[in-house]
Input
Amino acid sequence: MAFKPANNIQDLQYFGEFGGVNPSISDSSTYTFLSAKTMFDTFEGNADGCYLYSRHSSPSNLYLGEALAAMEGTETANVTASGMGAITPVIMQLCGSGDHVVSSRTIYGGTYAFLKNFTPRFNIETSFVDITKLDVVEAAITKNTKVLYCESVSNPLLEVADIEGLSKIAKKHNLKLVVDNTFSPLSISPAKLGADVVIHSLTKFINGSSDTVGGVVCGTQEFINDLRNVNDGACMLLGSTMDSLRSASVLKNLRTLHIRMQQHSKNASYLAEKFENDGLKTVYPGLKSHPSHELFKSMMNKQYGFGGMLTIDVGSLDKANELMEMMQEKNLGYLAVSLGFYKTLFSAPGSSTSSEIPEDEQEEMGLSDGLIRFSIGLDADIERTYNMMRECMEKLSIEIN
Ligand code: PLP
Output
């Protein structure tokens, strides 16, 4: 039977303390115990249903975690203060000194910087590879490799990972496949395709209102317990905990994610087709010209579409900057990093979200100067948006048909 992530969210039922239709927010950092023995047992992880201290867990964080685990089809989940606050403890939990990571070379700049510049301090090395080539991925594995890391749809080049293929390799070599699914919530369900750990930056589509940072790790009960362990759990000890007030507000936004993703996908798909017809170099997984279009189709939960992210190349950074400034002036969106907002957001990744990647490496992976990354908004009238964007391009003499 097809996996129905939005049904899984909707089927959860929560009530507040006084019968409220939303769960009560646990506005406490610490919790009392009626007996000292129960407090001791809770420390030892043996008192189910008891709360100790909110860095470890809180009722509000557990509600949000439960909803996100239902969405991804994993046993459970742990919410964190940011996407990076989810990614970094996962790597640190799975790897120790001497271990090795095989990672996609096209990933969010912060994750790239963490693996390239930060983890070597702990003697954890990473090989960055073209994730779309399974033979290259397998060849990079050494006897010390512990983790295979990728994004289902990569930032910013929108490369698509063959999660089932990667999962086979991971199983064969006894590695954990960790997938960041930030760009494709609901559309792709990595755990159902064999990922061991699924991560999101909740900052983006899932929260959807660009008013907070947040993250989540979805996985087995055993792995999430390990992350929360008071003695050696990376989430517990590195301390990137989400605040209860915030997890309550993210949970409320999560309930409209299915409707928002459908509209993001519909609008992005419309613009991508128009831009491509205009002769602009356009990358969108929903276009037949995308090298992994068929792969995406084979993995996707169809009703959510190919997502809200697309890129175009307008030839040079100067042209890209001029176009973005003009589009902002016309109120077609904002010149801003991040994604998943109701307004369209655009940025030139080479000089912003991927600036941590050295220029020669950017060139090698196809990250060109004139590339603009769009997170397409929820515009009610996308035809009008397109016509106005086209006018901007004509004014700036960008070559279009
Ligand atoms: N993963 C991806 C794919 C991202 O685009 C980002 C942020 O841009 C992150 C992770 C990091 O998330 P956060 O900013 O919430 O720490």
The chain has two domains: 5-254, 257-395.
